[in-house]
Amino acid sequence: MKEQEKKTVEMPGSMVPVLEIDGRMQIPQSMAIARYLAREFGYHGKNNIDMARIDYISDSFFDIMDDYMRMYHDRDGRMMWDRMSDMRQRYTDLDGRMSNMGYDMSSDMRPDMWSDMRSDMRSDMRSDMRTEMQTGMQSGMQPGMRSDFTSGLSSDMGPGSYSGSYSDSFNEGVMYERRRRRGRAEICRLLFALADIPYTDKRIDFSKWDSMKNKMPCCMLPILEIDRKIQVPQSMTISRYLANEFGFHGSNNIEKAKIESITDCLYDVFDNYMRMFYDRNGRKVKRFSSDMRGKYTENQSESRTNYLETCNRVLPYLENCLQSKENSGQYFTGDKIKLCDLMCYSALENPLIENPSLLNDFPKLRNLRQQVAANPKVLSYLKSRNETDC
Hints:
Blueprint: H1 2-10, E1 18-21, E2 25-28, H2 30-40, H3 48-72, H4 87-100, H5 114-139, E3 152-155, E4 173-178, H6 186-195, E5 200-204, H7 206-212, E6 223-226, E7 230-233, H8 235-246, H9 253-277, H10 298-323, H11 339-347, H12 349-354, H13 363-374, H14 376-384
Parallel strand pairs: 4-5
Antiparallel strand pairs: 1-2, 1-3, 4-6, 6-7
């Protein structure tokens, strides 16, 4: 474990897994790595819409896995056997995720059944992974896989060329989100604003949400409805789709991986912040203090600890990304605003309301957010927002 901790500290953002490409570039964030490899090896969508469909399904299953992992492991991957008494509430959260995906799980599962389930899941996963690896090695390079991927090292201790313009002639968009809420859809609204693309911002009252929920993909918000015929859930899937569509993503696979990795890091900060104050349906948790600077309950204190640990891990890494020799521009990947730069503004907005000194030790991040906010199109949008949104 000590060797693992040492190697983890040496990794980007002190996080694992990390994919090292050709011995010169390291990409953290498991889902950013997975999307990079899927594009590189020909297992992603053939166009922007197709990729969005694949992404939202993948992101939905990741949500399930993430909730499951939170039951057993701390942020450093250590087992938390002392948390078994806390399993029932965590199972309820996971049960909600699974039910939203169409699975029916028994609500009276006993906590003592978790050990057997964990063992079975790990055994099944290992067996499936061995089968997949053997099949892949026997079949060799599959059609569509790129041959310019020279050397990859995927590290659980501790980024081939890709290009494409995915314009699908985006004509009409409707964004569904909860009433008077910025939340997880705000990054999508910023993309629309920066692209100067009109769309319908449709807000749903909580009083109507319960009756509408089962009609929505994955029973969640936000949802982007494209040209009145395709509905895409998952805020980060939507944001990647819009970034591709509007030209705010990378010009090749490596650049896309960088942008998505940084974006996912910022989403970690945002997601852990939101978990302190809201349930999975977006309702403010009543047991929490209405004053964000007030006292915290025991459950909220745990969520806050996770949030602060994430900030301490992610923010120094992102500051270093802006200071790196490879980056000569004012934004994360050069002189043009990309998805990750907008995410830096959006994800840290509410945390900075609670703690205005959050970025005092990170001048590059602070300056980047100021540059994004000063963009005329972004500035116009920010001025037009309802100040009561949060």
